[in-house]
Amino acid sequence: MFTGIVEELGTVVDIVPQGDALQLTIRAETVLDDVHLGDSIAVNGCCLTVVSTGSSTPGGVADLWTADVMQETLDKTSLLGAAAGDRVNLERAVTADKRLGGHIVQGHVDGVGTLLRREPSQHWEVVEISLPEHLAHYLVDKGSITVDGISLTVVEAGDTSFTVSLIPETLARTTLGFRAVGDRVNLEVDVIAKHVERLLRPEYVERLRP
Predict the structure, then answer these.
(1) Which of 66, 81, 91, 205 has the most CB atoms around its CB within 10 Å?
(2) Max Cα–Cα distance, the chain, nearest Å
(3) Average pLDDT, the chain
(4) So where are the chain's domains?
């Protein structure tokens, strides 16, 4: 589980195609502190497993880690278009002793949106992002949405898009600071909304009747 609070911007250094999968190697610092093989790290909101670590300099401190990305992930996320040199949002899985600074994030991408417009102002920036229609009913004004692994508050929820307001800290520390109109971003809706929807289906409501 994650919280949507990005810990650092990493850099993709190598991509090795493997037919129906690929290996992704990323340079990072903070997220490799006390990392172990099998640990989970979210990359632009996608939960990936650490399969190896290494150093970019002989005998140096580990600053590289590799993950296997399966076809299912490539089909449903923006990682399909990843390239060497790309900056990516990184967050380690949350531990029980940490504060939940954002909201409950699983690292399971529900869909991909496209950045539609940016409106800078003096102290923040409004960004509009397209939304797959099947996800629209999960969003509400002032609710939570995860964009490329970033926990954000929805300003206006529409049927085909939504807006968020980005403070300088978010712009400086995440990929949303330099995403351009037309860029694709990973979206994860609030898992609590998905559970509530399932429980309210007629077949489940009927089971609860005395």
Answers:
(1) 91
(2) 68
(3) 93
(4) 8-92, 111-196
Closest CA to 81 of 146, 128, 161, 22: 22
What is the CATH number that goes with domain 111-196? 2.40.30.20
Burial profile 32-46: b = 16 or more Cβ within 10 angstroms, e = fewer: beeeeeebbbbbbbb
For residue 162, give every residue at least 6 positions away whose Cβ sits within 8 Å of its Cβ, in sequence order, or none. 128, 129, 131, 139, 145, 154, 155, 156
8-92 against 111-196: fold identical: yes
Using CA atoms, how far residue 116 sits from 121, 176, 185, in Å, is 17, 13, 11
Label residue 97 by pLDDT band (50, 70, 90).
confident
The length of the chain, given as a count of residues: 210
Instruction: Report the CATH architecture of 8-92.
Output: Beta Barrel (2.40)
